[in-house]
Design goal:
binds zinc ion; elongated; mainly alpha
């Protein structure tokens, strides 16, 4: 199985993952999955991701954070694909649900990452150099 096959089937594989693959194209993808451990692995990973994304959860924010943390590459790809495909005709129900989950998950994660990376340890700005006066210098001449 050449990388060319993987490349040309990656779109179909993604559609299969999104439950959007036209039935007439499914046999070719199934055949490739059976012959290509690399793509089968990716597909299995996505199946687990979908199961996790659709699982009912009491805490959606925590679930989304977990999804993004465990499958960052899938989230990034699915978000990009969903946005690309969402525009004019409107996505189908299944895709829309996944897309919304993914976009929400990505947004939540981005927010969390932003807070973590940008929140300074103190409120002191870079130009606010308060001189430290410990009193040590006074009687030490
Ligand atoms: Zn492949």
């Amino acid at each position: 199985m050449s990388a060319q096959d993987c490349e040309s089937l990656s779109e179909d594989l993604f559609l299969l993952d999104m439950d959007e693959l036209p039935p007439e194209r499914k046999p070719a993808v199934d055949a490739h999955l059976a012959a290509c451990p690399e793509c089968a692995k990716k597909h299995g990973k996505f199946e687990r991701f979908k199961a996790a994304a659709r699982a009912p959860s009491a805490d959606d924010a925590a679930k989304e954070e977990k999804l993004v943390k465990n499958w960052p590459d899938i989230v990034a790809r699915a978000k990009a694909e969903a946005e690309r495909r969402a525009a004019p005709r409107g996505p189908s129900g299944a895709l829309l649900v996944v897309a919304l989950v993914l976009i929400a998950a990505a947004a939540a994660a981005a927010g969390l990452w932003w807070v973590r990376s940008d929140a300074p340890p103190s409120r002191q700005g870079p130009g606010d150099m308060t001189p430290i006066d410990t009193g040590k210098g006074s009687g030490n001449k």
